[in-house]
Amino acid sequence: MKAGKEQGETILTLEDVTFGYGDRAVLDAVSLVFRPGEFVAVVGPNGCGKSTLLKAMAGLIAPGRGSVMLAGQRVLAFPRKKLAQRMAMLAQSNEAPAGMVVADLVGMSRFVHEGWLSRGTPDDQAHIDAAMRTMAVADLADRRVGELSGGQLQRCRMAMALAQDADILLLDEPTNHLDLKHQYALLEMAREQAARGRAVIAVLHDLTHASLYADRVILMDGGRVVADGSAADVLTCTNIADVYGITTVARTFGRAIVHLPESAGE
Amino acid sequence: MMRQYLTLRIGPAIHFPIRLRPALMMLALIILLGIGTLYSLRLGSTDLSMSDVIRWLMSWHDADPETSAIMILRWPRIIVAILAGAMIATSGYLLQVVARNGLADPGLLGISQGGMAAVVLGVAVFGLSPAWLAWAGLAGGFATAFFVMALAYRLSSSTGLILVGLAVGIVLSAAIEIIMVRGGILQFARWLAWSHGSLTSVSVGGAGMVAIWAAVLLPMALIASGQMMPLLLGHEQAAGIGASPRRLSLFLTMIAAALAAPIVAVVGPIAFLGLIAGHIARALVGERPAEVMPVTMLCGALILLIADTAGRTLFLPVIVPAGILVSIAGVLTFLIAARLSPSSR
Amino acid sequence: MKAGLGLALATVVLCLLCALHLAAGARFSSPALVVDALFNHDPRNYQHVVVIKQRLTRLVVAGYAGAVLSVSGLLFQKILRNDLVSPSTLGINSGAVAFVILGIYIFELNGAALFWPALIGGVAAVAVTFLAAGLVSRGGRDPLSLILGGAMTATLFSSATTFAISLDPDRFGNLMGWLVGDIGNFDYQPLAWLWPVGLAGIGLAFILCRQIDLLTLGTEQAAMLGADPRLVRAGTLALAIPLAISAVCVVGPIGFVGLVAPHITRLLIGETGRVALAFCALCGAVIVITADIAARTLLAPQLLQVGTVMALCGGIAFLVIVVTTLRRRVA
């Protein structure tokens, strides 16, 4: 791992990032700092700008104001291949041609490490195998994408992101389509990746998941960061009421914070 | 949007609200069509004066022989242009409603090609007389329409119908092409011109035949348009509010094929006219079939009349087949219209 | 099927077909005669001349056209992520034909020089198709809209072609075969100039194969995996259009190889990777050579046009593809 692990070193910095479609601001002066070895959950109501935030970090959109810096350099100034060596993303959209074989699909993630004449090296294969084992899709290698269930495809795509072997993992609703077992397996895996020194930044819908696994939770609303800190500090009933517009009672089970509607408390 | 009604009420049995905007639109289109007709009677390789045209119209029989001689060449063609335009446009609109896809058109669903293939076969292989060609075209159009509907029946998505129609049309065009390249280049060129739709060879007999078909089918389409509203909701929901969508769809498809067939026999297929006229009509008056239908007819008639008149006057001495002008001008206007109306679809 | 096996099989089939193509014709030549004509050529022997001058040139032309058209089709299908596009369904063929006719009519061009108007026509057709599709779909991603845009474009340009021809039919008399797609005896002349286009195009497609594959995952995903989507898409278009045009210049608007060959490839060995690309090229060559054999022998001694044979068979194949893809999507 290239990134250092000592506390305080930053890998990704957002400064005053503002982005909008027309005159509707989707991101409004967002400033954030991410460190290696951190599992950060981004939460917030629908349309609060979570996915757009990830896209801005990935250099997929150009912010109208402000900048995203990766290791001291603007993300947008990176050539795509250089950027992809540092950063992998699991996008929300599930697009892959139905006729493609899973092994080929996952293998595509190694493009960033290929030269014009070197490919399919033992190192490549080792990463692909490891990623497919981690996501429990090794036995799907010969299947075609069109034959997979939504959950299987989601795990294959996660395996792609892993095999890319980047310092930063951006995950947009990674638990989509997954059943209970695979949801928790994926979150465990994400935490493990963080423990190995990667920065894992995940958009999550489930606040319980966020509180249970993330080192740090960012709560967004209307394109702005409302709160940023540990789950216990961020996921308070006051914050939830402000952002989601629903009065809840919070129960804790160890690390996990569960917000229930007020009526369910009685 | 402000809605203004004018209610036609006769006794207790008849209560018929008429919306003002479509009514005005129709009136405007009728006036335009009238002006267009007068102009296309006047223009040609020999231009007449407007007074000559009007005198000829007023006194049908005792006009001066020179004018009559020219007119006998022009009026059948103009009648056919108007009726064929209206019929193809109606056919297209009916198919758009049945397919629940604003992009349907007899040319796109293969119906025109089916009629064409039958006509070509009839002429080139069996040597049919012109009187029978319309029937051959009708049979071909019907057969293709049913084939396409049957193939697309299970596909449920309305996109499927159009893709299947396109594919069937391509196969049929290839078959037509095989027959077309039999003769020399001159015949090939003539076939090519006809395969885009041309009114050059329209005779009084052809005009009469088209007029008979139009007299039967256009009123039927107008009457049917009153019942078409539920189809816009999709089959399940239409059945839910008490319509019988399958029977109605079948009936409408038959009318659509019947509308296209005689035109294919006399004029040749005119691609995209149905698509364009339907689109313009809906941009003008909205979505209600009973209002869109007559406006579509008028639009189609106007477009084909203008295209034919332009084709035979603008590039003299060359006469451009109307079908070519329709597809060039039509596709361009369609694209512009699509650009200008971002909301309506 | 394993990719390598598929490739070997396709090569064998292609070789057999080549042999059959050389032997078959209005008069069947014995294999011994064909071998003799190839390796022991006697210019005074009429049958040798037929085998080399007529059949071999036809074979080369057919194989070339099939290979470049199907590679072009595969490239289009990959970067547009749409199984129904091909040079013909995008309107490229009609655009090229229209501009070639105009080039002949106005500038009196001929031979390989017609490549340039054809190229302009092809690019114009693609531009019009994209524009029309964008307007029809209003930003949506309906696979139909591109096909419909292509159909509109094709109608537009073929109307223009018809108009130009009707101005002076006699002048285009000897072009009639080309207009519907044919492999005649005079056709190898432009090929002598144009084959580098095909070779370079296919070669570059091989080199860029990986990037193009990435694009099949969608723009954002491709970007995240390290490809520059806009660059790759533009580059691939710049490959695929001249490839198709170089075939159209030689044989006229032969449709549907570009549509069908990629589908067969996908069905048999999948669409990812260089082997698939090579398989697709071989497959296209096989299809056109078969069509040419059929065109020459089915109604012998009368010749059919390869273009019409292809359009007939290809249209039916298109129908089957449409019905099966849509069924699968519903299921």
TrEMBL record, chain B:
- The organism's superkingdom is given as Bacteria
Q: Where are the transmembrane segments?
A: 20-41, 75-95, 107-126, 132-153, 160-181, 201-223, 250-277, 289-307, 314-338
Q: Which GO terms describe its molecular function?
A: transmembrane transporter activity
- GO CC field: plasma membrane
Tell me which stretches of the chain form a coiled coil. none
Q: Where in the cell is it found?
A: Cell membrane
Topology relative to the lipid bilayer, per the entry, is:
Multi-pass membrane protein
Q: Which UniProt keywords apply?
A: Cell membrane, Membrane, Transmembrane, Transmembrane helix, Transport
In terms of InterPro entries, this protein maps to: ABC_BtuC-like (IPR037294), ABC_transptr_permease_BtuC (IPR000522)
Q: What is its main location?
A: membrane
A Gene Ontology biological process noted in the UniProt record is: siderophore-iron import into cell
Family assignment from sequence similarity: Belongs to the binding-protein-dependent transport system permease family. FecCD subfamily.
Protein name (record): Iron chelate uptake ABC transporter family permease subunit
Organism of provenance: Endobacterium cereale
Taxonomic lineage of this organism?
Bacteria, Pseudomonadati, Pseudomonadota, Alphaproteobacteria, Hyphomicrobiales
